[in-house]
Amino acid sequence: MKILFIGDIVGRPGRHAVARLLPGLRERYGLDVVVANAENAAGGFGLTRKVLDELLGLGIDVVTTGNHIWDKKEALAFVDGGLPLLRPANYAPGVPGKGVHRHGLDDGRALWVINLQGKILMPPVDCPFRAADRILSELPPGERCILVDMHAEATSEKRGMGYYLDGRASLVVGTHTHVPTADAEILPKGTGYQTDAGMTGPYDSVIGMAPEDSLKRLITGMPTILNVAKGSPRLAGLYAELDDATGRCTDIEGVFLREV
Length: 260
Ligand SMILES: [Fe+2]
Ligand SMILES: [Fe+2]
Fold this sequence. Notes:
Purple Acid Phosphatase, chain A, domain 2, alpha/beta, globular, six-stranded mixed beta sheet
């Protein structure tokens, strides 16, 4: 199974980068599945139904999110609507939405997508490690292709999750920090791993936001409206190939493209 994972799509520049670059990536890699984190896709904060539909229309099969999932209140109106949309699985019991999704391919194969959120320097959540154990124990044993989006701030927690799930998940990919890391690799027991897929959005920015807005907040500590930056849109993510029978990752490479 050939998978493209796209890192946090930020605002209109990020959506444009996907629209411009995904067709070429699909052709180049012969993709079976496209998964993208889109927690910042609507104006930099959260998701609207219109933006979600736009992303699904561009050929993204499954959308993951993170701590920004509730930024747009209308998300509550569609998060339980049977869409291929995830919020972290380790939110409190009873929270709307779901954290696990089965994406079935026309030929019968399936990719399970699990969304988790870290607990270090993040809003409080249930333990992502115990949540992963519980979810994995409930998946059908015959379907071994499993992608985990570990949405977290701390590099250590993300690498820890990679090793915790090594040999149990096919891919563990980090999101949230918006800066791609250069450690796309296959861990010893066969799990493909990258600490952060990076941001799909404007790189002439402070993690997607206009530098002047971010600096105002950083320097003064005052509440500041953060506007999505415009310059240097790029697509960041990860390509991986999985062995369908075992779920092991057989090939992985970071993807980082300038929009041209
Ligand atoms: Fe993000
Ligand atoms: Fe985030």
